[in-house]
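Hi support team,

I submitted a single chain yesterday and got back a structure, but I'm not sure I'm reading the token output correctly. Could someone confirm the output below corresponds to the sequence I sent? I've pasted both exactly as they appear in my results page.

Thanks,
R.
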Amino acid sequence: MARPLTEPVLIVASHNQGKVKEMRALFAPYHIDLKSAAALGLAEPEETGASFIENAELKARAASVASGLPALADDSGLCVDALNGAPGIYSARWAGVEKDFTKAQQKLEKKLAALPPAPHGAHTAHFICALTLAWPDSHCESFEGRVTGHLTWPPRGNKGFGYDPIFVPQGSDLTFAEIEPAQKHAQSHRADAFRQLVAACLANRQRDNLSYD
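Hi R., thanks for writing in. Yes, this is the structure output for that exact sequence:
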């Protein structure tokens, strides 16, 4: 049985403000006070894992041990089928130390341009998100979600972050950066992982029916 989250405060082990904002929206109905690792001055550990879950676990454990509080870490990325799953766990590193995802998108476009055209006109891809809850005793609960779709250029929209402007989820004509945040929260890879986390670790908490701004 998964360990329930009973504490009122949770550290978000990320310095990515876009991710922190999404987490605040997802956790809002559960009366949990989220604090970011950046706001607390917690260092980001080196991501040496070989999978999304391994990286999420090492980040969550590091933040929880450093803060003495439960911590939530997200490790997510874009996996392009024609590139054998790249950039995958290296998605953020493609953006460089300055976290310039425009550069990362251009790098991806260049790599795909060197390949034969996509069979159906657009390269297929999927986002994966691993979410890990960790406690100061190093216990972890991990969950992995995904959403499939295809890539598009030029990038479109300004409501998302990362690779959102070039990713069109299956069943939509809009990129993740064009979709309203509430709609994205309902269908994203992060939302998929979060639903699993809720069922396992938050079923004990009272939920408010809140709408997202």
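A quick pointer for reading it: The helical segments are 17-27, 52-67, 101-113, 181-187, 189-202. Let us know if anything else looks off.

Best,
Support desk
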